[in-house]
Amino acid sequence: MPFRRFLAGALSAAVLIAPSILFGGPAVAAEVTLKVHHFLPPVASTHAKVIKPWADMIEKASNGRIKVDIYPSMQLGGKPPQLIDQVRDGVVDIVWALPAYTPGRYPTVAVFELPFMISTAEGTTQALQAFSEKHLKEEFADVHPLMFHVHARGVIHSENPVVKIGDLAGMKIRAPSRSIGKALAAMGATPVFMPVPALPQALSKGVVDGAVIPWEITIPLKISELVKNHLEIPGPRGLYTSVFIFAMNKAKYDSLPADLKKVIDDNSGMTMAKWVGKVWDEIEAPGLAKAKTTGTVRQLSPAEVAKMREVTASVTGDWIAEMNAAGKDGAALLKDANGLIDQYTK
Prior knowledge:
Blueprint: H1 2-17, H2 19-23, E1 32-37, H3 45-61, E2 66-71, H4 83-89, E3 94-97, H5 121-135, E4 144-150, E5 155-158, E6 172-175, H6 178-186, E7 190-193, H7 199-204, E8 210-213, H8 215-221, E9 229-232, E10 243-248, H9 250-255, H10 258-266, H11 269-282, H12 285-294, E11 296-299, H13 302-325, H14 330-344
Parallel strand pairs: 1-2, 1-3, 6-7, 6-8, 9-11
Antiparallel strand pairs: 3-10, 4-10, 5-8, 5-9
Helix pairs in contact: 5-11, 5-14, 6-13, 8-12
């Protein structure tokens, strides 16, 4: 009996101490925990279809040595425009953020937010990533960029119908970036700048009459329940997109051993941009389908698209002038961005 009690105790200890011996496979404790912070709710596609799958890839590829904890909806505090500073300062390890939320701070990357740059999210995201590796290292030197991407083409959503540029006159439209704010102003609208989580309340209280956002985000924000009219801008290039960065704290990245750095590297950059851009095109469909059941979806006529291009051309000219004033060749940067978009768009 004493031997049996000893054997039972030994087996119990083995279960507690070394489950991998009994069940197979190494039991590896996490050596590194990465905190990822972003501003959208868990139901948003960004969280569910990009950040969470990426976290799973990292944990699997590192054999559990890296653990990724995701904090949506600004759960770690602050406001969306503060995310870049949070990752720069090491308050968090990784963020998903918009450079445009800090106007003027990242002027070069704004070339992709100029009017009529976006083709598809897949093509433009890969073009942006390639552009970043050539032209954005200095601009984002205070963080470790994991990937840049864009969302699919922006759509004009409004309570009152917009069928021509003149219909925007006097309307207060939520704008995501300085460039698109200037484009809206050129078309007669009044741009109102705010992070996208503030949009539903702004629409319901009449702070804005509409917004330019892609179809994807209309589902978690319930935009189709707040406005009934939606205007797409057809053609080879859409009206606008926004640039996003998935960025890591430099010191945190530098502190990783070489093999774990490789795990991060193998799952970022162009490798990540390829699948993320494709995801952004695919996740547009539910928002469009929802809008068709609750309101009216229109497409701007070719004549009005041409007029829109003409009216907003000054925004691109202003950006080139600003780049030139900063000692950069704005026209050359624009040409390279356009060439890369053409190269990666299928």
